Fold this protein.
Amino acid sequence: MSEPPALGRDDVAHVAGLARLSLSEEELDTFTGQLARVIDHARDVSSLDVHDVPPTAHPLPVRNVLRTDDPCPGLDRGEVLAAAPDVEDNRFKVPRIVGEAP
Amino acid sequence: MSPPASGPPASGPPASGPPASGPPASGPPASGPDRAEWETVVGLEVHCELKTQTKLFCGCKNAFGDEPNTNVCPVCLGLPGSLPVLNAFAVELAMRIGAALHCEVRPSSFHRKNYFYPDMPKDYQISQYDEPINVGGWLELPDGSRVGIERAHLEEDTGKTTHQGETGRIHAADYALVDYNRAGVPLVEIVSRPDIRSSAQARLYVTELRAVLVATGASDGRMEEGSLRVDANVSVRRAGAGAFGTRCEVKNLNSLRSLGRAIDYEVARQVALVEATGTVVQETRHWDENAGRTVPLRSKEEAFDYRYFPEPDLVPLAPGSDWQERAAGAVGLLPSARRERLAGLLGGAPTPQQVDQVHVVVGQGLDDLIVAAVAQGAPAGLALVRAANELAADIGAALALDAGTFGSVVEMEGRGELTATQAKAVLAELLAAGGGDPAKIAAEKGFEALSEGSLAAVLQGVVEAHPEEWARYSAGEEKLAGFFTGQVMRATGGKADGKAVAAELQRLRQ
């Protein structure tokens, strides 16, 4: 398997943008170095032969954790809305949204 | 993003100008380029809200129309430290849908789809990504065509945002209000293969799929309440071409009518674009029902990067074969079999009107009521008409109606104890009250069909009061039959049966 390209400063800026983080030029340099080390560490795995190990979706050997379809009481609306920065008509009031739902 | 300049007037020439202009905003785009040269290619994504008691990952009520933010808890509000637990009945319904669509049930897992939009307080939606629960299948349409099913996976619905501002339009909104009652409601997203070749077939597909979802008990199928939502992937290619053209995804299709119009518009727009510029730009577009056109929402470059990653709080799902078989066994009769069952009860070749009515009642899940009514002695044709009209007008109440009660009303009408008008009024009363005794309601309303003798007497009185009209009617002026029927209805307070009046008029004239 070919090695993925090394992590660059642009990649970090892109990911920070996706996460709505604004990083200074200095922070970009710092995090690019730190994240590159983390990825290098994870890359150690690729030195192992795992061709006969099935992929796992979860580290625990547990499947089918389910609950029955029975309603149970939720939170009191007053309590919920008290935690909201702003409220109107018993709904959460949020700033103008640019664009449409994904 | 601002909408493009408006297209040419409806009577104008086919659009061939700048890429942003579309075909005429109203009417079928038949005046466009030679359509026979082009083939429409459509794939549909249908989001179906599941008819569970509770949400997908918490015990909050799954209910439409409740007071805002009354069905919320730490899990669906995304409060720190809360953990999702999967609803077993949602899995069961997803497998029923899979079975009805001939899919294979596979071991599956959940991912987080990350995005910033206030309709999900967690800032991600839990969905199935590379390992969906149902894979590969097909749906056969009433016209005999088959549409392939790519996958049908589980995911959670988002909250409901309402944009507030001068016009209520998204682009002009000042702020938004959010209700999280819907956040976390279970959905199955059914993704078709790009096998659909016309807007009519797309409508037929959604209609039949909706009937399947209702028949399996997975959905109430109410598009107007948003329990069924459709996105369309539309592209065009020259007839006979092997490769698909570049597609556009069209959102905001809230009715079958919107779906059909949007596809027709999009096909004409894309054909004009390809003929003028040779290419279509891949993008997501928004259907504007009032303007009758699609407008760009975001380009391929602006497409969201959802940073999918495995949901660490949920373990994989792998229903055993016994559970899969139980779910498949609970599917029951599919719409095609249900239509055949009704046709059998009607006997003989159904009229075109009856064929339509059969589709309506099966689509709404009302056919079991008809079958029960006929079993207790009600005439099938009449039961079908009352179900397709009166019951379909108030589905929620109709589905809660006792089959025997419905059967009794139809029987009374069949025996001539109630006129059509009276039977409709009794049904309306039963639906409004959530049940009752039809005979008692009829008596309370003073509904006793007139005996033949008293009808004749009433008619005689009407004739004597209008000698001039009677002379003209006797001379062959047929339209006066309506006049006399009206007079009889007035004299009897609507208790007379229209057919009986017509027969009596004929008899009296001879």
